[in-house]
Amino acid sequence: METGEVEDIEILASTEIGGGFLPDDIVELLLGAVHLYLYKKMEACITPLPKVESVKYISGGALKKWPKRLNAVPPRMISPINKEVSFKAFNRDRSLWAQRVSQYGNIPKSLSMGKYRNIMDMNAGIGGFAAVLSKYPVWVMNVIPYHTNDTLGIIYQRGLIGTYMNWCEAFSTYPRTYDLIHADGIFSMYMDRCDILDIFLEMHRILQPEGTVIIRDHIDILVKAKGIMGQMGWNGTMQHSERGPSHPEKVLIIDNSK
Fold first, then answer.
1. In 90-165, which ranges are E strands?
2. Taking 90 as the threshold, does the pLDDT of residue 16 lie above it?
3. What span, in angstroms and rounded, lies between the C-alpha atoms of 250 and 228?
């Protein structure tokens, strides 16, 4: 911004508005905002692809064709220092989510019968939950909370879809869009950020009236959640996670079709 433009703002700020002039502190605040945002050096909004040694190589790593790419280690996960760690972490995540989904009561059977079509994972990680559901006739929206690790690129490389989200705000979708909502650690994540009641109300808005919610979290948070659910007319059953009865992580399944 040129000096003349700053002077124009000073003149505008001191213009008579509503029978009086803007106070000096307001003018100072406006000028401060100008210097803060308009004099800040712009950052690149497009991340360049990694350089390759030869034209025969693919920048960023080659992707396998669908459906093989779903269960292949995404190039973004492969560490140039120790690839073995990435392979182990990826395979461990695959095995973990296969085990977790198998323990979700009647959910797998209902998936096979076509009860659920539109599914949301509120904290998708690297897309492990969606990958397990790929054998069913469903589609999954993988959501990455904006303040967690940015794994959306990995989700895309696996052939899945996803988006970023701040769950203290409303999700951009129509009411009653989803048949099943999966929430892994969401309420622990947002305990100090906003009221979990607001998150519950947003889940209620985007869920089908007879939809299902699966919540994985600490037992203390789930006890509090059950109190809120009662006010919303939701009934849920709590069960142990794959870590056993002595671990504080539990699973709360809310089936509104019953």
1. 118-121, 139-145, 161-165
2. no
3. 17
E-only strand ranges, 122-234: 139-145, 161-165, 178-184, 207-218
pTM for the structure as a whole? 0.78
Kindly provide the residue ranges of all beta strands, DSSP E only, lying in the chain, ordered along the sequence.
118-121, 139-145, 161-165, 178-184, 207-218, 236-240, 249-255
Residue with tokens 């100072």: 28
Give Cα separations from 137 to 199, 243, 248 (angstroms).
28, 29, 33
pLDDT in tens, 50-82: 677 777 767 666 788 989 999 998 888 876 655
Distance CA 23, CA 42 (A): 31
What are the residues whose beta carbons fall under 8 Å from the beta carbon of 118, sequence distance 6 or more?
A: 138, 139, 141, 177, 178, 179, 180
> Within 10 Å of residue 192's Cβ, how many Cβ atoms?
6
- Cα separations in angstroms, 10 against 1, 4, 20, 35, 155: 13, 10, 15, 13, 48
Retrieve residue 211's tokens: 């939809």
- Whether residue 152 contacts residue 162, with contact meaning beta carbons closer than 8 Å, is answered with yes
What's 140's DSSP letter? E
Residues contacting 139, CB < 8 A, separation 6+: 117, 118, 119, 161
